[in-house]
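2024-03-11 09:14:02 INFO worker-7 job=invfold-0412 stage=load source=structure_tokens
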């Protein structure tokens, strides 16, 4: 359980740690319950369990903290339907939910749709895979630049946020509180 003020309670300490460790360009996979998370993570990514949570719930919380990559055309991707599902005209309304959440977080791009096995190969290169309780439809996010060291005084690195470029004032206000009011510093 997370006991930090302003941090969404659905984000476990393991997931918060992974988000903090990710660098720009690193990817995070929010996997459904049927995704081979353990097998994929045997190839390198960290496996984080969130079995009782849904992807939309986690995505909303993650986007409050994680800046998306603005240097790529589409920083978020879903596994596309297989041909048989396309032929049956299978509807995927959760993709609209993902797009709405991404838009609220300031993303202006559409979801990339990746072929199933290409998605698996890409997931093997992700920083982490979050295995959720969703029955179907996973999502991959690419992290952008977020925090940069801006000054050094008296043996202290002062970290300031660069999140103000986000269009969402809620996210911007939250991050200003988190980085400026708490005055995050690293001593060395």
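2024-03-11 09:14:09 INFO worker-7 stage=emit residues=188
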């Amino acid at each position: 359980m997370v006991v930090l003020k302003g941090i969404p309670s659905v984000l476990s300490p393991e997931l918060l740690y992974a988000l903090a460790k990710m660098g720009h360009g690193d990817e995070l996979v929010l996997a459904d319950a049927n995704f081979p998370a353990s097998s994929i993570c045997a190839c390198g990514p960290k496996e984080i369990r969130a079995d009782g949570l849904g992807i939309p719930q986690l995505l909303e919380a993650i986007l409050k903290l994680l800046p998306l990559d603005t240097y790529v055309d589409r920083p978020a991707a879903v596994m596309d339907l297989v041909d048989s599902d396309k032929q049956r005209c299978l509807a995927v309304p959760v993709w609209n939910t993902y797009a709405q959440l991404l838009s609220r977080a300031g993303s202006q791009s559409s979801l990339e749709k990746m072929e199933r096995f290409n998605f698996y190969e890409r997931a093997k290169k992700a920083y982490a895979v979050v295995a959720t309780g969703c029955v179907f439809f996973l999502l991959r996010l690419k992290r952008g630049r977020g925090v940069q060291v801006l000054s050094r005084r008296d043996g202290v690195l002062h970290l300031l946020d660069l999140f103000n470029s986000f269009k969402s004032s809620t996210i911007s206000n939250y991050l200003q509180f988190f980085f400026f009011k708490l005055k995050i510093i690293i001593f060395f």
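2024-03-11 09:14:09 INFO worker-7 stage=report msg="The radius of gyration is 17 Å."
2024-03-11 09:14:10 INFO worker-7 job finished
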